[in-house]
Amino acid sequence: MTPVLESQGLGKKYGRRWALRDCTVEIPAGRVVALVGPNGAGKSTFLKLAAGQLAPTSGGITVLGGRPADGPAQLAKIGFVAQDTPVYPRLTVAEHLRLGAGLNPGWDAALAGRRVERLGLDPKQRAGGLSGGQRAQLALTMGLAKRPRLLLLDEPVASLDPLARREFLQGLMEAVVEYELSVVLSSHLLSDLERACDHLIVLTGSHVRVAGEVERLLDTHHRLSGPRRDPGRLPADQHVITARHADRQSTVIVRADGPILDPSWSVSRLTLEDLVLAYMEQRTDEPARTISLEGRR
Length: 297
Description:
alpha/beta; Rossmann fold; 4-stranded antiparallel sheet; 9 helices; elongated; P-loop_NTPase; AAA+_ATPase; ATP hydrolysis activity; ATP binding; ABC transporter ATP-binding protein
């Protein structure tokens, strides 16, 4: 199956600073992808490159079989909701929907109308008078009614309270199933991502550090605890991600290509948050070596 998004050596430079560098990833169709990393890691730049809002400085990116900004037909396949759930405060809900219909040839007015009614949004209400959760839902409605095949969401729930986040993500998951969408979702809220996403990309220091199916990544990463030792002496098939040492004990997170056979180690499973934080703790002044487990079994 053709990947919904594929990049090779993708990079974007602003002046002398690389916001994203040597990014090579492949995202299968039908996935909900968590794009995570610290501020300044390159998440928004990656999404804008995928949406066709920016041109690469180096490398290339293919989205749904074409270049992101390669004409109206290609742009129509991609929905993008930028940071801060962008809506127009002076426009009413109904005016937003009319604007969407005028800008998008594939606009699904019935879909937009059903969502507005189900969400209890007043069509006459100006967006500036909506709550944060309602504005986020309106922005999502605009993105969905375009009927894209790939939906890109940049920190859409960052400013929402827990209830509004849950409602937003529930609506997103329903739409993924109903409309067979692929989604790339950037967020710092790992607990929300753990419930919603089945694929992961971690960006730090403008590089991709790890990418792959969430369950596969969790199955191949382990926390090892035991008597203090040099991590460099671990077997060759145990790749150290992070290591911490007390006086007599070492705690090491590894990616293992096979079972952990050393009985002196206590082995425990990582959560998604553990996995992400381990890669975020890696030194960013060292060259990145992207780890991708997609397709391995």
